[in-house]
Write a structure and sequence with these properties.
Blueprint lengths: L1 H6 L1 H18 L2 H9 L15 H4 L2 H15 L2 H17 L3 H17 L13 H13 L3 H9 L4 H22 L24 H43 L7 H15 L6 H16 L2 H13 L5 H11 L5 H14 L4 H32 L14
Helix pairs in contact: 5-9, 5-11, 6-7, 7-8, 7-10, 8-10, 8-17, 10-17, 12-13, 13-14, 13-15, 14-15, 15-17, 16-17
């Protein structure tokens, strides 16, 4: 996948066409937001006015969530997951449950994906459970894929990174936690993927939209709190720095210096300032969340502060759920799914988030290594964040 997107000109063009088609499809959300929210979603381009985030960017999640629900109702999602999981199982020799879960995360996300295998979690081995946690943190949901594009991230790199992370998360998980037990879920035929309980596609469309509303406002509430605490930490760290004669110190600056060696080794660029920018994005994503990191990435690329190569590697590095807030979400969600495995889930949570960082750094390093040979990167700087 990395060679096709970054090394092969024809493959890169086809992938770019696919990404543009997806973006065009998602842009139809604007018609609904203009009608429902009017001015706050589509303000005039005067006096520096911008659309309200929760009424513009996040509304894409509702639209895409409804589409996924309809595809699930007709069995299309189940069919695609079975085929891709069969391919992953054949190439990586992983079991059916963990292969299905890794592939499901690409389309459904880290909370919806585990619902597919909920009846089988009690039968899973420790290594399978560990692989599921790792894959949950490594991919992004299809709905969030739409939101990240709205923030200015390049769709080509987002799509390829999310797809590569599915087998990559399984590989990293098995390296650090190999299978030592006999699995009861080896074959895809052992898993059942029933359709939803809705009776019509219209009902499914409506239920999908209603279910996504809670996610939208949950994301908005989390962003409000996280950004407020970030401003608070910046002031506290700045004040402490001034006490010892260091001026201009901030939380993001500390994160940048912490992640700078890793960003430099990934081959971001020879410009140390650009490498520091990417390191700050990586630190922001890990300590806070990927939404804030992608928003800042969109601002940097729109301001031409990052070269196409640096923006590419940053996009790969930020693609995933490996942050501390995601750990809390997984702890609550999987604990509710299967209480018997709760302690096992909690014990492996920290290792899983570390392994997912390895998955993302592997993708980032792969992109940088392929770029060293020959770069067919897409310059996304002119696109900027979409309203």
């Amino acid at each position: 996948m990395g060679l096709m997107v970054l090394r092969w000109g024809w493959g890169a063009q086809r992938f770019e066409d696919l990404a543009r088609t997806i973006v065009k499809f998602l842009d139809y959300t604007k018609e609904g937001t203009k009608f429902v929210f009017g001015f706050v979603a589509n303000p005039p381009n005067v006096c520096g006015m911008f659309p309200v985030f929760v009424f513009s960017v996040l509304q894409t999640l509702i639209y895409f969530g409804s589409i996924v629900a309809v595809l699930y109702y007709y069995g299309i999602i189940q069919f695609v997951l079975r085929q891709v999981a069969t391919l992953v199982r054949a190439t990586l020799t992983t079991t059916a449950a963990e292969s299905l879960q890794a592939c499901a995360c690409v389309f459904l996300g880290m909370t919806e994906g585990p619902l597919l295998i909920q009846p089988y979690i009690d039968k899973m081995t420790a290594s399978e459970l560990h692989a599921i946690l790792t894959s949950n943190f490594s991919c992004i949901a299809g709905t969030l894929f739409a939101a990240y594009i709205s923030l200015g991230a390049c769709p080509n790199y987002l799509l390829s990174s999310s797809i590569m992370s599915a087998p990559g998360s399984l590989a990293c998980s098995k390296l650090l936690f190999p299978e030592t037990e006999e699995s009861h879920l080896k074959d895809i035929k052992d898993l059942e993927l029933p359709r939803g309980s809705e009776t019509t596609a219209l009902e499914c469309l409506s239920n999908g939209a209603s279910a996504t509303v809670q996610i939208v406002f949950s994301i908005g509430a989390n962003l409000l709190v996280v950004i407020a605490f970030l401003a608070f930490f910046d002031d506290v760290i700045g004040y402490l720095g001034e006490l010892v004669g260091i001026y201009g110190l901030s939380f993001q600056m500390l994160l940048g210096y912490l992640f700078f060696p890793l960003a430099y080794l990934m081959g971001v660029t020879d410009d140390l300032n650009e490498t520091l920018h990417v390191a700050q994005l990586m630190g922001t994503k890990t300590a806070l969340n990927e939404f804030i990191a992608y928003q800042k990435l969109g601002e940097l690329t729109a301001s031409n502060l990052l070269t196409p190569k640096a923006a590419m590697i940053a996009t790969y590095a930020l693609c995933g759920f490996s942050n501390f807030s995601a750990v809390g979400m997984q702890l609550e969600f999987l604990g509710l799914l299967v209480f018997k495995k709760f302690l096992s889930v909690e014990f492996r949570k920290a290792r899983s988030i570390e392994e997912n960082d390895s998955v993302e750094n592997r993708d980032e390093g792969l992109a940088g290594g392929i770029d060293f040979l020959f770069f067919y990167g897409v310059d996304c700087r002119n696109s900027g964040p979409r309203a």
